[in-house]
Amino acid sequence: MTPEENLTDLRAEARRAMEAAYAPYSGFRVGAAIQTADGRIHAGCNVENASFSVTMCAERVAIGAAVAAGDRSFRRVFICSTSVEPVPPCGVCRQALSEFGPDLEVISEGSGGLARTWTLRQLLPDQFRLEEHESPRNPDRERPT
């Protein structure tokens, strides 16, 4: 499969996830599809809650789906939303994505068809990295691949 075909599939999965979003409070629906290093795709959508701090963003739901399937090495993430303009991931999602690689490609498409592309490093140049703040309490912890 060519990179363009993979991108088409990634976009389609993100759009499907966006349609499934649970956004009764904001009406702002978001879908994300994350592609693994070997081309597999995992999707997620935002899930709102009356207690807003419990709300889950699409990007973190997609990460959870990928990790639950045993995947931890990602190439890119595609985000679709009901916003006319493309929206980058929120700060919390940027940090969550950075756990799996600062060079991840981030593509966002708005409902108007305009798309933007960044690297995660551009969106979060100084992400929190545990290696820089290592605790001597758990030197044998599992590290992301």
How would you describe this structure in keywords?
single chain; 145 residues; alpha+beta; Cytidine Deaminase, domain 2; five-stranded mixed β-sheet; 4 helices; 5 strands
Task: Describe the fold and architecture.
The chain is of the alpha+beta class and 145 residues long. It has a single domain, classed as 3-Layer(aba) Sandwich (Cytidine Deaminase, domain 2), CATH 3.40.140. 28% of the residues lie in helices and 21% in strands. The chain has a five-stranded mixed beta sheet with strand order 2-1-3-4-5, with helices on both faces. A hairpin with a 5-residue loop joins β4 and β5.
Task: Describe the structure concisely for a colleague.
This protein is α+β, with helices and mostly antiparallel strands.
Q: Superfamily at the CATH H level?
A: Cytidine Deaminase, domain 2
| Name of the top-level CATH class | Alpha Beta
Architecture in CATH? 3-Layer(aba) Sandwich
Helix proportion range: 25-40%
Global Rg: 15 Å
Number of domains: 1
Q: Major beta sheet, specifics?
A: 5 strands, mixed
Unreliable runs: none
In angstroms, what separates the terminal alpha carbons? 24 Å
Write down how many β-strands occur, each being a DSSP E stretch of 2 or more residues: 5
**Mean pLDDT reading:** 91
Q: β content, as a range?
A: 15-25%
Order the strands across the largest sheet as they lie in space: 2-1-3-4-5
Order of helices and strands: HEEHEHEEH
- CATH topology (fold) name: Cytidine Deaminase, domain 2
Discrete helix count: 4
Per-chain topology:
Elements: H1 3-20, E1 30-36, E2 41-45, H2 58-68, E3 74-81, H3 91-98, E4 105-109, E5 115-119, H4 120-123
Parallel strand pairs: 3-4
Antiparallel strand pairs: 1-2, 1-3, 4-5
